[in-house]
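We store amino acids, tokens; thus:
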Amino acid sequence: MRSDEVYVGNANVDAPGDHGWLLGHFKPPGDPRHSEDVEIKWGVHRPGEERAQWTRGETRTALLVLISGRFRVELPGRSVLLAEPGDYVVWGKGVDHSWRAEEASTVLTVRWPSVPGYAVDSGPVDSGPVGSEPGGSEPGGFGAGGNVRDGAGCGSRGE
């Protein structure tokens, strides 16, 4: 194995340098973190930090996993609260979204494919240095389970 095929890092150290994104098309070619297929984000959010402006016209599928805190994802017609470590939400292509950290939160976002040239205008976001999105998210085509709180019912405990 060549040394250029391996990258060892720490998400808390590396993530702030690229708005939380650890892996994707935006990393330099030849870097093991460069991928045209998937993007991975380590999002660290302050209490009350939010994306008030909805992300619209998303072309990727996304998975957002709560590592710590309480994090709400707003989707058309439903509000999903991730409250226990390991709670997650998946949404497909074409699903608009916004989000809010109800407590200091860390989330891991995986979205695919990695789309060159795609950027979301964050608009006025109450954010710190890692004030991007939680993961290019959209609602639709996901089920709720475990301790995920879903305002639309769907088998989960509502708030």
In short: The longest strand covers residues 61-68. Strands lie at 21-23, 39-45, 50-55, 61-68, 71-75, 78-82, 88-91, 97-101, 105-112, 149-150.
